[in-house]
Amino acid sequence: MSVTPSIFKAYDVRGIYPDEFDESVAELVGQAFVTYLNAKRLAVARDMRLSSNSLAAAFIEGARTQGADIVDYGLASTDMLYYGVSHEKHDGGAMITASHNPKEYNGIKLVGRQASALSGDEGIASIRDMVIRHNIPSPTSTRGTLSQAQLLDQYVSHVLSFIDTSIIKPFRLVLDAGSGMAGVAAPSIFDSLPCQTTRLCFEIDGSFPNHEANPLIEANRKHLVSTVVDTQADLGIAWDGDADRCFFVDENGQFVPGDFVTTLLAEAFLLKHPGSTIIYDVRASHAVPNTVDRLHGKPLINRVGHAFFKKRMRETNAVFGGEVTGHYYFRDNAFADNGLIPALLILELLSKHGTSLAELLAPLRSRYFISGEINTTVQDMSIIPTKLDQISACYADAIQHRIDGLSIEYPDWHFNLRGSNTEPLFRLNLEANKPSLMADKRDEVLSLIRAG
User: Fold this and answer.
1) What pLDDT score does 380 carry?
2) What would the pLDDT profile of 95-134 be if each residue is shown by its tens digit?
3) Which of the residues 51, 99, 119, 179 is marked catalytic?
4) In the annotation, is 99 catalytic?
5) What is the domain count for the chain?
6) Is there a single domain that holds both residue 388 and residue 307?
7) What is the pLDDT of residue 416?
8) Which of 7, 32, 126, 219 has its CB surrounded by the most CB atoms within 10 Å?
9) Is the pLDDT of residue 1 over 80?
10) Neighbours of 435 (CB within 10 A)
């Protein structure tokens, strides 16, 4: 098939299978990836999507023709693949997944040594150009080897090492794996804790028979929320399809925004590592830097995206970083994101405080009123710089910065507006110190975004 350049995204390669992304493309990406990294040994894993087996086989074939030895970890979560790359000192790794996207999608997440992420700025563009321009070297004379390995036992031990399991209280939990890859490691991890669990959608199934594995969409949380309330559980936890992100609802079934989860995790780390650096993204509630300041940590704001977070964390030796979309990064996890460590840290923090999740969140919910991410479709992404300039001029008296998109700061409200790195969208995140002010300013900014 002819290769569509648009499948090469800011953070991965992804498209509709097989119309945009198929085995022939996966094989070419495997060849180009080895060439770009000059890799001798790579790790490969795959998620549960119906096309993932054949795409993984094609990627592996392409990589082997370029002389790279492959260690196939089979069915695994993305964060397990990251762990394998860093712990086993591979030259890089590839995860066959489309993360939280609907079942018709598939793709590849690519990382280099120590699970350092490739991005559109570094790596993915080079691989795209090699594939599109047919500029891949001829196969090597010596074909790479293929072996299989399993990561589960050592991965589970690694994740559990982030907390003191002896202090975890006997919480009643509802867990929703979304038919995805959390079903691989989560059972072993939660069986190690003194918690009673109700497990939803733990049967791994790439047809997603219950709901899409994207907990950011409210409809996909309905079963989790109703089960938490009906069983009078202490909290609910859900994961996306490749299980590198997790999401929480409190005992009342109320969803916890990623900003507030980042705030709680920052507290958890500052209790363990006083004075540490915490990274947060431009979209985040002021709850994050205010809490880090109050606990005498060092808050650093950063542009959105896992490649940028991991790079900044390495540069500053930050102990933790959090994005509002549920990606949480850990220094002692090769600076990579992980979907199970946050769940354990929240349980540990609740155990230390001896309180419920809603009670722990009450001070944040009473002070910070956030819009959540609001998307507006744009027909032509080239208009985004002009539109940002126009909106910037409307708030000329504000503190402004352009770390990522446009950020506007007033004493009692602020917002970030940026073009999506992956879709033709404007993304707005706004916060105010009163619900009415948040609603008024949200509508005001949206009217400016959507004005003809």
Assistant:
1) 85
2) 999 999 999 999 999 999 999 999 888 899 999 999 999 9
3) 99
4) yes
5) 4
6) no
7) 98
8) 32
9) no
10) 9
**CB 276 within 8 Å of CB 214:** no
**Residue 298 burial class via C-beta count within 10 angstroms: exposed 0-12, middle 13-18, buried 19 and up:** middle
The CATH number assigned to the domain holding 14 equals 3.40.120.10
Note the pLDDT tens digit of each residue in 304-357: 988 889 999 999 999 999 999 999 999 999 999 999 999 999 999 999 999 999
Listed as own residue / partner, the contacts of 401-407 with beta carbons closer than 8 Å and 24 or more positions apart are 403/282, 403/301, 403/302, 403/303, 404/281, 404/282, 404/303, 404/304, 405/282, 407/282
Q: CA angle at residue 295 from 292 to 398, to 5 degrees?
A: 40
pTM: 0.96
Token pair belonging to 79: 């964060």
| Judgement on whether residues 190 and 270 belong to the same structural domain of the protein | no
Q: 234-262 pLDDT, tens per residue? A: 999 999 999 999 999 999 999 999 999 99
Task: Please report how many Cα atoms fall inside a 13 Å half-sphere around the Cα of residue 73, on the Cβ side.
Answer: 29
* Secondary structure (DSSP) of 254-310: -EE-HHHHHHHHHHHHHHHSTT-EEEEETT--THHHHHHHHTT-EEEEE-SSHHHHH
Match 């929240």 to its residue by tokens: 346
Sheet holding 172-176, edge to edge: 196-200, 172-176, 235-239, 246-249, 255-256
| Residue 350, C-beta contacts closer than 8 angstroms, at least 6 positions apart | 169, 171, 234, 235, 356, 357, 360
Peptide bond into 18 cis (omega under 30): yes
Q: Which of 386, 372, 371, 352 is nearest to 268 (CA)?
A: 352
In angstroms, the Cα distances linking 258 to 246, 283, 335, 438 are 9, 10, 18, 18
Instruction: Please check whether residue 168 is in contact with residue 347, taking contact to mean a CB–CB distance below 8 angstroms.
Output: yes
Residue 86 resides in a domain:
yes
- Average pLDDT of the chain to the nearest whole number: 96
- Host domain of residue 34: 5-151
Whether the Cβ atoms of residue 418 and residue 429 lie closer than 8 Å to each other = no
SS3 content of the chain, % helix, strand, coil (to 5): 40, 25, 40
Token pair for 450? 């959507």
Nearest to 198 by CA among 244, 249, 242: 249
